[in-house]
Amino acid sequence: RQHEGPRRVKRAWVIPPISVSENHKRIPHLLVQIKSDKQQPGGVIYSIKGPGVDEEPLGIFSIDKFSGKVFLNAMLDREENDRFRLKAFALDLGGMTLEDPTDLEIIVVDQNDNRPLFRQDVFTGHVVEGAEPGTCVMTADATDADDPDTDNAALRYSILEQGAAGMFSINATTGEICTARPGLDRETMGVYNLTVQAADMSGDGLTTTATAVIYLEDINDNPPEFTKEEFSMEVEEQAAGVDVGKVFVHDKDLAGSPNWLAKFTILEGDPEGAFAIRTDPYTNDGVLSVAKPLDHEARDRFELTVSVQNEQPLEPTAPASPRALATVRVRVRDVNEAPVFRDNPRRVSVLEGAAPGTPVTTYTASDPDTRQLQTLSYALLYDPADWLQLDPHTGTVRTKRELLHPSAFLQGGWYIALLLARDDAEPPLSATGTLSIEILEVNDHPPVLQPPDGVVCGRPGRGGSLLLGATDDDRPPHGAPFHYQLSPQHPQLARNWSITRFNGEGYPPNHFPSPLPCPASPTPNPYLRPHATLPAPPTASQTPPVPPSPHAPPCPHPVPTRALPAVLAGLGAARVRGRRRALRKGLLQRSRDDMRDNILNYDEQGGGEEDQDAYDINQLRHPELFPPRVKPPVRRDAPLSSATPLAPRKLPNSPSDIEDFINEGLEAADSDPSVPPYDTALIYDYEGSGSVASPLSSIVSSLTDEDQDYDYLSEWGPRFRRLADLYG
């Protein structure tokens, strides 16, 4: 079989595009008649499908199914649909396809039925004044909904109105607006309003209009000018920071802009800078003010040369100003001025105990008003102790009564008084001067030994010691610190007696290395008095911490008293430690235990703040007033036994027995085989629950407690500072 080529479509079934004008009003309107070449004996049935038939928009087109005529049933709008593509079908009476579907294209022909439209009603543009011709400002463009390929959408632009000057032009095809002439001046006309037109059909069709507003931007082409060449003003002397007056200027440039804002400078007539000038930001005028107080007596007139210019540099093409300089004449008016104490405050010195009538100083003021005849008078304004008298005419100050130490009116040895100087003008003015008088200390009091006598006890081979101090009513440098020495009139004392400084805080004890018998009754020792005229360590005037009683009994058991500071230091450390823990735990508020200076009975190696057997330190000072304990101590620190000592320990009868008392307790603790090792926590005695302090163990072992910090002991005074140095 031969290959069959493509089937040829018959010409009658090929339908060319059909054109129809929009807005056609004669409807129904025959567009075309389609016809199939395959005619059947019974006839052909024709149909069409597509937009405008069975798709939106519906009902625009229809066909006669027997004749094949296609009709337009509604008006067309090209701006909505510019063409329609349909399909045509040919069927026999039985519904069988006779022809393949063919395309039916209907083109809508445009009509000039749409006016041009500007994109906005008002166009706004800016251009600087003085712009060259041809400077483009903005574009006023429009659109047309008609077919852009026809003259229906061919637009042309023009300026209908812009005033008589004709400063702007517009491009007819693009709508771009540019300057047409030179000479744009904002000061002459700052805003231009143009009426712009757009027309289709190349300018002969439909038209529309819009407004173009053009603002001229200011440049600094006008310099500021003074309104006149001379200004006159007045100001009172001694007035600082006040405004004297204004100098007025005028500038044609845009108000409020840098091209308008003026800047003033004082060129001549004020070498000392007594005046200042600033710009009023609202009026642009210059405000002259006084920068430094003026003195009429020194200078009563000023002639200033002031210049003005803009903040913004002037344009090179701008003309020079004939009024860029002005002369300002200022007259200084004389007023009454207050007197002045040149030396204020005045500091003078007077010896303590100066007799009444002793001259102190002559304290006078001066009157700045040298061109006025005025007289000054003086008065005491403040004399709290009524110590002074003043001559009202000469200003001479004398003592009225004896000046002595101490006095509540002295501040660090200084006495403060105030003097008033007044002139006789109308109204009168006054000034106040401060007189500071230093009362110089005089060495008129000898030091006094504290205590005046004491008892020193020791054992063979070991000396005793005594803490001494002194007081002096004089202030430094005639008071403390003191120097202690054995009487130089008795050099033999140096063989058996020595005196050394106790610590750096001025508690010097008398140290006696040689053994001395204890007297039956204490007698004052005249050789222990300090020499009054020699210097001494600071704060030595304080009383020793434990002064010996002048009525102490003989020493039946001599104890070297130099061990007493160590005993007090150890007990102080335990007490400090307990107080610190109590403060941290907040247990000192309303504690049932007395936290005062108590020394606890440690004969059973126990006790603390809650030990009910604690006794006051007066038991050490006066043991004869307190009976010994009757209740035997109970040991609770032995883990396997609760044995108690064979007999209760005897309390010390005198201060000298303290060392033996402690040594015996230490020996009892060390020789007891039932207690734990040396550096372990011991249960000394049951103190009840909630103790405000920890048990007193070895002082050395407490150093390992991370909670301990002994540096604060240095703030407790000289007695604890040494302890802070050892354990801090």
From TrEMBL:
SMART domains the record matches: CA (SM00112)
Which is an annotated GO molecular function term of this record? calcium ion binding
Q: Where is this region: Disordered?
A: 518-556, 624-659
The signal sequence is none
Q: Which domain of life is it from?
A: Eukaryota
Asked if the Swiss-Prot or TrEMBL record annotates the protein with the keyword Nucleotidyltransferase, the reply is: no
Matching PROSITE patterns, A to Z? CADHERIN_1, CADHERIN_2
- What is this entry's stated membrane topology? Single-pass type I membrane protein
Write down a Pfam family by its short name: CADH_Y-type_LIR
The alphabetized UniProt keywords are: Calcium, Cell adhesion, Cell membrane, Cleavage on pair of basic residues, Glycoprotein, Membrane, Metal-binding, Repeat, Transmembrane, Transmembrane helix
- Principal subcellular localization: membrane
- Subcellular compartments: Cell membrane
Q: Which residues form the Cadherin domain?
A: 12-118, 119-226, 236-341, 342-449
Q: Look up keyword Transmembrane helix and say if it applies.
A: yes
> What role does it play?
Cadherins are calcium-dependent cell adhesion proteins.
Q: What is this protein called?
A: CAD15 protein
What is this protein's gene name? Cdh15
